[in-house]
Write a structure and sequence with these properties.
mainly alpha, two-stranded parallel sheet, 47% helix
C-alpha cells in the first residue's frame, strides 16, 4: 500500500499513523524509514482518544537508530506528565512511565 501511494503522490506527502501497539508500531516505522517516511502521527504521552503511540516513545526509538528528530526527549516527557495531570491520568507511553514525572529545572 505504501509503495502504491508513494508512487502516485510521493512519500513526502504521506504520514504513518502509529497506534499504541508498541512492537507492531515500531516495526512499521522501521520498515518505512528506508522508503522515505518523513511524517509520523503520534500523541504526547500516548494520551488521547485515538490510542496513538507516545511521541516520546517514537522519538526515543528514532534517536536510538541515529535519526535526528529535532525533539528533546526530556521536554516531551515533561509535556506528557503535564498533559496527563490536566487529563487526570498518567501517561501511557513507555518512555514517560519509565522516566517518571519531570519538572522544569530538575
Amino acid at each position: 500500500l505504501w509503495d502504491a501511494c508513494a508512487a502516485r503522490i510521493g512519500p513526502d506527502r504521506l504520514a504513518l499513523r502509529l497506534r499504541a501497539d508498541w512492537q507492531p508500531a515500531l516495526a512499521c516505522l522501521d520498515a518505512l524509514l528506508p522508503e522515505g517516511l518523513q511524517t509520523v502521527d503520534t500523541a504526547v504521552g500516548g494520551l488521547g482518544p485515538d490510542g496513538l503511540v507516545g511521541t516520546e516513545d517514537v522519538a526515543a526509538h528514532l534517536h536510538r537508530l541515529g535519526v535526528a528528530t529535532g525533539t528533546d526527549e526530556d521536554r516531551l516527557v515533561e509535556a506528557a506528565w503535564w498533559l496527563g495531570g490536566h487529563l487526570g491520568q498518567a501517561p501511557l507511553s513507555r518512555v514517560a512511565r519509565a522516566r517518571g514525572p519531570q519538572h522544569p529545572g530538575d
